[in-house]
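Appendix B, example 12.
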Amino acid sequence: MDIYILNDKFDMVDIIDDYKYLMWDMAFYKSGFFEMRADIRHLTALTTGRYVYRNDSNYTGRIDTVAIDGQIVTISGRFLESLLDFRVDALGRTHTDPVETAMINILRDNSEGNRAIQGLEIKAGLGRGATGTFTAFGKSIAEYFYELAEAYDLSFNVKYNQDAKSMTFNVIDGIDRTQFQTVNSWCIFSRDFDNVMDEYFEMNTDYANFAYVFGENSASVIIDKSRSGERREIFVDASDLRREEGMSEAVYTALLRQRGYEKLAEAGRFETVGFTVTKDHSMPFGLGDIVTYKQPNLNKTYDLRVTEIREIHEKGNIKRNIVLGKNKPGVVQTIRKGAM
């Protein structure tokens, strides 16, 4: 696999096929990142280059750090999605739309004129996701979009287009590859199939399902997702959401409800699975796909989203660590470093 080093105009400055190490960490609920180590003879390209491109990946790295240790140069950084961290919503417009449409409109609002992100194309979406009232005021666009990802399971990527030398913003939701659907090919992970090793499994029992949301001037709403079961309450301070001049009470109430849904999503119950994929695994899957996982100790089956894929390329070998479900910090690091 070749690694292409591109400058800030997306012109190629080097092709590296003799790298010593490559870590490529793709994530659904946060910006992914990479690290690569190469021989010192690539130093000029790595210090003048801006981007790291693989033609077999939907993700492209942006070089943030260059370090030299003897005859080895190490570069690292985040993927192109992190460019949206460089724009904050300073306008505070509200959008009552499906989630995908709201994301596209918020990004357009904050990347016009001299705020445009060079080379980024924003195309019309498919109107996916629940309809709500959204505002990212005061937050970076990436931060807010990942909050929406947690709440609605719709994430995004910024894909580099090699032929056009441009980038495209895309909302992504993955493919259903669970065992009982009949549209797409299945993907089942289980020790019974000898396709996983070094498993880590966790499920939480500490969660919330009922929110009291308070805005400015004593405005408040209640969000009840307890479904008449055990109620677990939280308090949500949404006083940062301002009722701007001309904003109706209905729109402001919808903003408060939206904040409540987002906070309950953060505090919801979850299962998290981490493991290393064995070389014998041949079923197709990608980031964001929903797959089936069989937990042999509990004798239970879970349908979970692929929320992180970490590839490690070293000495001619490839190791893939996978996280399914809500991506708790450090799950990938928890997986034991078994030999592949």
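Residues 3-80 form one domain. The helical segments are 43-48, 99-109, 141-152, 249-266, 331-334.
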